[in-house]
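Worked example 2:
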Amino acid sequence: MPPIIAPSVLASDFANLQSEAEMLNRSQADWFHIDIMDGRFVPNISFGLPVQAAIKKHAQKPLDVHLMIVEPQLYIEDFRKAGADIITVHYEACPHLHRVIQQIKLTGAKAGVALNPHTPVSVLEDIIADIDLVCLMSVNPGFGGQKFIENTYAKIEKLKTMIVAQGSSALIEIDGGVNQENAPKLMKSGADVLVAGSFVFTAADPEKTIADLKNIAY
């Protein structure tokens, strides 16, 4: 199966969000990846509900919303109303993770859990059957353009083994430092979804770059 490609709008030209959204609509991208940062959970602030809602007006593909915020449970319904189709929260930000997953599902959105690079996949063993997506951070969250963390491949393999063993349908998403060079190995390791930000939006031809990722040989 070809990968699901989810370009990260965080790396786009914010002064031209409509044209960037239209480019993604024309491209072979499958999802819009939306990074929400609060300056507390991660050392950066991106954008919030009004910008996500503005993107939704022009997006013709699902919004994959990644909440890098503290107390995400306070805002789940708001992000759903602003157009989120998939809502991913961080394990590290949710002391009552199962409750938050159920909260997301009650809105009708798909539920994802993100893990920081230092967090082992084993923490999801008791909840993997209840979630739709696991986002493995392959850089430290907060800023784009970081170097890919090589241990990610081993984490993907461990997570895939857990998913298969429990009969879960969770997709494995990789976020951070994804490019043409590491994408084949990521897919061989068991990844399903590739998030690419600066690699796509700084390319001379973003649509071709997305197509090349979509049709990666592995």
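Residues 152-166 form the longest helix (15 residues). The chain has a mean pLDDT of 96.
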